[in-house]
């Protein structure tokens, strides 16, 4: 039996950010990841884009946490030496009505306190604080920093039962071990509803929304120097074209709702749905064959988004669920927000400590190659 003040269930970027924040607030915390490595699910299969929140709906919790995370981002990226392209993004008008949409987005950005500019010659919206990182390296950097601050990370530690006591929880692991804790944070992504059900909480449901991507290598070692955003619709932000930290160019994603949480394959129709739109955004892709393709499953909530708070069935279990594609961008904000929720459980919190410099630059080659290669292997 292992004792810890707080157990974090799930080793994606949100779980790593929660662990990082807890450790830097002086809390004895242990992360339990069911897989053999961190960031194997939604976190490691994303675009790697760090969004500024320019287009998020003002006043919503998701927006608040993206903006809160953004205020911490520079300090953490620099201290932990996480690879990042501070490249910015542009959103160009193409069709009728696009300029009106861009004007509305610019107004929304100003309401969120995000600096943007509309270029005079073509009406494009410029967003300088849209950046690109390596999402696997980002996750590991947060987890490694948490360990240096006293936290514990355990992989191959699937939680399959929760027993409730008056002042603690006992988490049953698939291998037969038990972990006792004062509180547990449910950051299990696609399995977050399964974890909630272990305490009788059926207040939300998670389903997978598949996003497929194609990776390109431009001739002559050329690359793209900023993110190209399409004019969004009510349902999706559309097909993006963006650079990676290792000099590749990626186009995607799709947005396909499905039922199977284990289906990471790229559909045959995905190329048709993405490539024409990508070439319209970035003509240099015309005629090029992708060097890789991958799919990510975003943990979407059924009629719910950003379900964060104590479980109505068990207050010692804090749900952090239905964190969709903005989870990477909001992760530091989520970590701070969730940590503040622990005060009613009599878990002592120290003042926030500054991150200590990392001993060496993080990159995902330590964990199976460039993050998109690691992800592409899973998608086939």
What is the arithmetic mean of pLDDT?
93
The H-and-E topology, N to C, reads as EHEEHEEHEEEHEEEEHEEEEEHEEEHH
Q: Give the number of domains.
A: 1
Total beta-strand segments: 20
Radius of gyration: 20 Å
Q: What class, by secondary structure content? A: alpha+beta
Q: Summarize the biggest pleated sheet.
A: 8 strands, mixed
Q: What is the name of the CATH superfamily?
A: FAD/NAD(P)-binding domain
Overall 3D form: globular
Can you describe what's shown?
The protein is α+β, with helices and mostly antiparallel strands. It has 8 helices and 20 strands. The strands form 4 sheets. Strands 1, 2, 9, 10, 11, 12, 19 and 20 form an 8-stranded mixed β-sheet that branches. Strands 13, 15, 16, 17 and 18 form a 5-stranded antiparallel β-sheet that branches. Helix 1 (13-23) runs parallel beside helix 7 and helix 2 (61-80) packs across helix 7 (327-340).
Short overview:
The chain has helices spanning about 15-25, 60-80, 100-110, 135-150, 190-195, 270-280, 325-340, 370-380; strands at about 1-10, 30, 50, 85, 90, 115-120, 125, 130-135, 150-155, 160-165, 170-175, 180-185, 205-215, 225-230, 240-245, 250, 255, 290-300, 305-310, 315-320. It has one domain: FAD/NAD(P)-binding domain. By secondary structure, it is α+β, with helices and mostly antiparallel strands.
Give the key terms.
FAD/NAD(P)-binding domain; 8 helices; 5-stranded antiparallel beta sheet; 26% strand; 380 residues; single chain; globular; alpha+beta; 8-stranded mixed beta sheet
């Amino acid at each position: 039996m292992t004792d810890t003040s707080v157990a974090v269930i799930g080793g994606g970027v949100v779980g790593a950010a929660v662990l990082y924040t807890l450790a830097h607030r002086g809390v004895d915390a242990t992360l339990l990841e069911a897989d053999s490595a961190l960031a194997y699910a939604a976190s490691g299969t994303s675009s790697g884009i760090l969004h500024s929140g320019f287009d998020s709906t003002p006043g919503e919790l998701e927006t608040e946490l993206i903006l809160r995370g953004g205020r911490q981002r520079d300090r953490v990226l620099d201290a932990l030496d996480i690879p990042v392209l501070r490249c910015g993004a542009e959103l160009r008008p193409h069709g009728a009505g696009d300029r009106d949409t861009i004007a509305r987005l610019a107004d929304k950005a100003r309401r969120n306190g995000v600096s943007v500019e509309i270029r005079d010659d073509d009406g494009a919206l410029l967003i300088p604080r849209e950046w690109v990182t390596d999402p696997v390296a980002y996750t590991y950097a947060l987890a490694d920093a948490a360990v240096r601050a006293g936290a514990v990370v355990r992989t191959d530690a699937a939680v399959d039962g929760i027993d409730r006591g008056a002042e603690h929880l006992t988490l049953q692991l698939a291998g037969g071990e038990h972990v006792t804790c004062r509180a547990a944070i449910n950051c299990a992504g696609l399995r977050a509803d399964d974890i909630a059900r272990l305490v009788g909480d059926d207040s939300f449901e998670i389903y997978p929304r598949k996003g497929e991507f194609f990776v390109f290598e431009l001739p002559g070692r050329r690359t793209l120097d900023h993110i190209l955003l399409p004019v969004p619709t009510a349902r999706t932000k559309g097909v993006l074209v963006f650079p990676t930290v290792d000099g590749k160019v990626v186009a995607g994603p799709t947005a396909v709702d499905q039922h199977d949480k284990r289906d990471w394959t790229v559909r045959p129709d995905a190329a048709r749905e993405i490539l024409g739109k990508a070439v319209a955004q970035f003509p240099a892709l015309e005629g090029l064959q992708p060097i890789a393709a991958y799919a990510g499953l975003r943990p979407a909530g059924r009629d719910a988004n950003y379900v964060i708070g104590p479980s109505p069935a068990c207050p010692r279990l804090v749900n952090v669920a239905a964190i969709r594609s903005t989870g990477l961008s909001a992760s530091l904000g989520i970590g701070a927000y969730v940590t503040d929720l622990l005060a009613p459980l009599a878990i002592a919190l120290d003042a926030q400590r500054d991150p200590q410099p990392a001993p060496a630059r993080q990159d995902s080659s330590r964990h199976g190659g460039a993050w998109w290669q690691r992800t592409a292997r899973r998608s086939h």
